Each structure stands twice: as structure tokens, then as C-alpha cells.
Amino acid sequence: MRARGCWYSDFHRCGSDQAGTTETSRLGGPDGLARRLEPIGYSWRRPAVEEKMTGKSWKVVLIDDDPEIRETIGGVLQDSGHEVLTAGDGDAGMELCERQSPDIVITDIRHPGIDGFEILRRIKTGRPDVEVIVMTVLSEIELAIQALHLDASDFITKPIANDALTVAVKRAKDRIATRKELGDYTALIEERWMQTAEELAKTFDMQKSLIESSIDGIAAFDSDGKTVIFNRSMEQILGYERGNVIGKMYLSQFFSPGEAEKFEQKLKSEEYGGKRRLFLFESILVDKSGGKVPCQLSAAAMFQKEEETGLVVFFRDQREIRKLMQEAADQARLLQQDKMISLGRLAASVVHEINNPLAGILNYARLMTKMLGKGMLASESVTKFQGYLSLMESELSRCSKIVSNLLSFSRQSTLESAPVKVNELIAKSITLCEHKLSLQNIRIDTVLSPENPVIPGDFNQLEQCLINLIFNAMDAMETGGVLTLESALIPAQKIVEIRVRDTGCGIAKEDLIYIFDPFFTTKKQGKGLGLGLSTTYGIIDRHHGAVSVESEPGKGTVFTIKLPLGS
Predict the structure, then answer these.
(1) Which residues does 29 contact at the CB level (< 8 Å), separation at least 6?
(2) What's the CA gap between 502 and 485, in Å, rounded?
(3) What does the pLDDT read at residue 346?
(4) Tens digits of per-residue pLDDT, 181-218?
(5) Which of 80, 81, 88 has its CA nearest to residue 62?
(6) Is-contact 461 417, C-beta < 8 A?
(7) Engineering a disulfide at 284: which of 256, 337, 472, 517 sits with its beta carbon 3.0 to 4.6 angstroms away?
(8) What pTM does this model have?
(9) How far lies 362's CA from each of 166, 355, 356, 357, 402, in Å?
(10) C-alpha to C-alpha distance for 79 and 71, rounded to whole angstroms
(11) Could you tell me if 231 and 219 are in contact, meaning their C-beta atoms sit under 8 angstroms apart?
(12) CATH topology of domain 415-564
């Protein structure tokens, strides 16, 4: 301890004769505090009063029963720019403190009324941010030390030296500034902590929402395989409520017998995406009722400090997909069946078509054989032979074309777009059906566009559409009639129209809205499955076109196909 004042606490330690000495603290001094503030981006400097509290009017209450001391110390403080309020006893001083809310209180320990210790206790209880400096004589230094233990800012001994007073007041103001700095720092820490907590909460809520809103099942399991996450889609896939699963059921319990072992084996291999990773692995699960659920699984192990802590698994229910695939396969099979019915009807017509040219070829061949049997051919016979051979070649070409068209029609294929001449499409479709049309006493008329427009499309599929519509017209004209096929170029709309018009029985108004539905038919049993018009609609739709129908019972029907022109 110094003879003239001592800073005696675990926060500051100095003497009044060491006016230039800077503070040290449990935080490691100003530099230590700065190092602690830097990581959060807070710039800190030692709180010099002149810098940190610029423009502040410091209010000081001075309590002493000696008027001379009050005048002397008060004058020094006022000369230093402080606002000084004085009181001659403890009661008046305490009242002054309560009324004026000073920054610093300088009080003698012994004076009339309540003593300096009681003033110190009351101030630190009600206003701990107010700094209290105690004054005492040197012979009562133990009282000053006791005041320091009660959180006095400093003490000075009488008689009061100006430099001791200046240093004590400066330390008090520095403590206030430091406390404010630490308060700001604490507020900043709390603000940053709240921001971080809010961001973490938002991130957690977003992750939880993503997991819950996923259409795929998501479940997570700890290192023992126990369920820790079980989202809403998992409840729908397996039928369990998450409350009965989380913390109670294990991953292996969700698999069909033998599937859990396969899953674990594949997870250990690198076959499906890497070790401890699995991508699109097909497996069978078991739901709550014991039913088998085909699923596609993707999984990844979770690690913390290179130690595996769990597993997250994504489950994609395959039941609906497999159902749709089966329906597509069934529909394709039925479409092919309907096509085979049409093919059968075409084949019967083709037989007649081929019989006629074959009969002609046979007759010409027999005639040529007889002529050859008579010996050398005369020059006129050579001319006849050449004519016969030309006719035979023409008829054979006709047979080949008919068979080729039939094979093209029967072939299943995907959409293969190429330039299609609309008039040729109509002519070829008529060729395949003309014999059967003639047998039914149906006259064929054509009104074709002179521009012979070209569209992008699949010739075979578009041909199938027209044949379906021709057969539909034939069924509507069992006793004969007129079938008209038309083509028209409409430049303004950049489309081509194809119309198939008949003079048949027509379609009832209530049936028109169902006419393109699969399996809807007004034909007699055995005449078709009701897929012809549905197939036509689908093909035209894939060509980005449209098909419509107009009909009047007893007068006939018109189907109109609209197809876009190529770019």
C-alpha cells in the first residue's frame, strides 16, 4: 500500500503518486479485452474519458462536514469542468444523491448523520453504476480498505492533494466508461446471440418443413438403427404414426424378410453410389398391415468427427408407378388387339385385292406356255409376249404394294417424324380399303387440295388414323353410301385440314361427348373394342393437332383433322 491513497481491488491496483500508470484488470488489461472483442467484429479501445464520453457533463456530489474541504475540492472539480453539488452531512448528502442522480459521489467516512459506509451501501444497492470515492485520514486507512471491499471506486487521504483527487476522479470516470463499454459489448453479444438463435430457428424450421413436405418418405436412424426422424410421407407409405415409431422401431423392422440384409450388404458395397451410400436401390418394405410395399431407396450414412452416427434414408413408393406401368402395358396390349382386329379386316380385303392380279398373271402365264408349245414364236407373238410380261409385272407390283402397305400398317413403332404429303397419305389409305368399300357398295369421292400440302409427321401412324376413320364410316354405311375424303390448306392458320365424310346412320347427340373415350363404342359385339377413335385422338394429339366430329342422326358424320404445317 502507498502512503497517499491506494487502489485496492482485484480489478485496479495503483497509487495516487502514480498518476500516469494505466489500469490493469482480470480481463488482461485493455489489450486483453480488445482481443476478446475482435472475433465478433467489435472495435474496442481503452475508454479514455475525453474520447468515449465527449460532451458529457459530469455531475459530482461532495459530502463533508468541513466547509473548507467542500470549498477546496469543489473548486478544483469545477475548474476541471465538473458540475459539483455539496452537502454538509450524510442525510442531506443522501437526499441530494437521490434527487440529482450524480455520476460520482465523494464522501467522507465520518460525518454527522448517516456515515460514509451507509451512503456507500445505499448507493450501490440502488444505483450500482454510480462511483463512490471515500475520504479519510491516514490513521484510519483500515476504514478506507473496508470501503473498497464494499465496492468503493477509490479512496483519498486527508489532507487532500490535488493530484490524488484528479487521479481518483479520473479512475472513477474510467470505470464508468469501461462499464458502459462492457455494457455495449454485452448488448452486442446478446443481439448477435439472438440473431444467431433466430437464424438457427429459421434454418431448423425450413429443414423441418422440407422434410415434412417431401413427397418421398424420409427417415433417419441412429447408429443402433433406431428411428429418430419419420416424416409425413413415411406415415402414408407404411401406415404407422410417427409417435409409435420414433425411438421405438428399428430400420430392419420396415423390410420384408431378407430385404434388410440385402440393403445393408449393398450399403457396404460401392455398387450403388459409393461406400455407405445407396442410390435408387429397389427393395420391398412391409407396411403396418403386413402388406408388401415396393420402394426405391436412397441412403447415406451421417458422420461426426469421422465417426458414423446414423443413417438417413429416402423412400420412394413404387406402387402407383408400377400400377401406371401395368395400365400402360394393358392399354398397349388392347390397342394392339384392336389393331389386329382392323388388320384382320384389312387382310380379308387384301386377299381379294391380291387374288385378282394373281388370276390375271396365271392366265397370262398359261397363254404364254401354250404359245411356246407350238414352236418358234412369230414376230407378232413376241410383241404379245412383251405385252403379257408388262401386264404381269404391273400386277405383281400391285400385289407387292398391297402387301407392303399391309405390313406397314401392322408394324408397331414410335413417332418418327418426316415430311408427309397429305394427298398421298389419303390415296394410300384409300388403296388399302377400296376393295372392301366396293364390296359394301360404298362409293369413294376425293376433294384434294391442289397445293398437295406437306406436314411433319409419322406417315404410318397418320395412315392408321385415316384407316380407323374409314372403317368407322364403313360400319355406319352397312347398306352402302358415299365416302368423301377431303384435304384443304388453310394458310392463315398455318394448318392442313383432312375431312372424312360419310352418309351413314350418324351418331346420337348424347354419344358425341364420349366418342373419343377409350373402350366407348356403339358397334355390335365383335365389331371392335372402342379403341379406334381413342387411338386416332392420341396420335393426332401427339402430332400437335386436333380432331373433331360433327354428326346428325340419319344423315351422316364428318370427322375433321387439323394438323400444323411444318416450319
Answers:
(1) 22, 23
(2) 9
(3) 62
(4) 888 888 888 888 888 888 888 887 887 788 888 888 89
(5) 88
(6) no
(7) 256
(8) 0.38
(9) 139, 10, 10, 9, 18
(10) 12
(11) yes
(12) Heat Shock Protein 90 (3.30.565)
Question: Is the Cβ–Cβ distance between 254 and 264 less than 8 Å?
Answer: no
Q: Which of 26, 27, 92 is nearest to 62 (CA)?
A: 92
SS (H, E, C) 421-442: EHHHHHHHHHHHHHHHHHHCCE
Helix (H, G, I), strand (E, B) or coil at 298: strand
Other residues' Cβ atoms within 10 Å of the Cβ of residue 325:
11
pLDDT: which is higher, 10 or 267: 267
Q: Which residue has the cell 448477435?
A: 192
Cα dihedral value 242, 247, 248, 252, nearest 10 = 90
Distance CA 330, CA 406 (A): 24
Closest CA to 238 of 218, 223, 220, 258: 218
Rounded to an integer, what distance in angstroms lies between the CA atom of residue 118 and that of residue 131? 14
Q: What average pLDDT does range 247-253 have in this prediction?
A: 93
* Per-residue pLDDT tens digits for 362-373: 777 777 777 766
Cβ-contact 442, 481 below 8 angstroms: yes
* CA 519 vs CA 504, 508, 522: distances in Å: 22, 17, 10
Whether domain 58-181 has CATH 3.20.20.370: the reply is no
Distance from first CA to last CA of the chain, Å, rounded? Answer: 102
**Structural class in CATH, domain 323-409:** mainly alpha
Helices (H) and strands (E) in the chain, counts: 15, 17
- Cell 420412394: give the residue: 316
**Per-domain residue ranges of the chain:** 58-181, 212-321, 323-409, 415-564
Mind listing the pLDDT tens digit for each residue in 269-293?
776 556 678 888 888 999 999 999 9
Beta strand 227-230 pairing with 217-222 = antiparallel
Q: Any idea what the Cα angle at residue 278 is, between residues 273 and 280, rounded to 5°?
A: 95
> Considering just the CA atoms, what is the radius of gyration of the chain in Å?
52
Q: Which CATH architecture has domain 212-321?
A: 2-Layer Sandwich (3.30)
Instruction: Tell me the pairing of strands 292-304 and 277-286.
Output: antiparallel
